[in-house]
Amino acid sequence: MRVRLLAVLVAALLAAFNVSSVFASTGPGGGNADLGLEAVTISGGTLIAKTGQVTLAGSITCTQDLDAFVFVDLAQVVGRFNTIRGFGDTSVSCLAAEGSATFTVSFFADQGKFAPGAARVQAFAETGFCNDVDCFFDDALYGPASIRLVGSSG
After folding, report:
1. Is the N or the C terminus of the chain less surrounded, counting Cβ atoms within 10 Å?
2. SS3 breakdown of the chain: % helix, strand, coil, rounded to 5?
3. How many domains does the chain have?
4. pTM of the prediction?
5. pLDDT at residue 123, as a whole number
6. 82 confidence band (pLDDT: 50, 70, 90)
7. Hey, is 146 helix, strand or coil?
8. Can you give the CATH number for the domain in which 79 is found?
9. What is the dihedral of CA 6, 10, 15, 17, to 10 degrees?
10. Would you say 118 and 151 are in contact if contact means Cβ atoms under 8 Å apart?
11. What is the pLDDT averaged over residues 41-65?
């Protein structure tokens, strides 16, 4: 329940900022630091049409070894007045020597079912640590961007 609430809050934050590019916050001080998280991307999505379960594939890029937490928000317009939404999250480890790491995240819509076709996706990745004095975070945003959900027999 806490993870779902956190995912909803992050999705609301993403919607409020309505970011259309990929960037990493690497400013000095204020709890922000360049910890090596450079970008997050979503490369595709599949759907089990019978159940409505979506699996999104993506990657993060890094310049330092890190563990990141990735949240995704997916919205699909159905008809003239309805939007189906769903949220998912996962953790991923990225090694600087490789420069990037892939991930998948699977989830269902909060209400209704996703269907094959066009949708909008946003993603947020974050890494961080705390010491005795302060906490340091680095994050990356993706989207909102168009994506096509491809059906599978799964």
Report:
1. N
2. 10, 60, 30
3. 1
4. 0.77
5. 97
6. confident
7. strand
8. 2.60.40
9. 150
10. no
11. 95
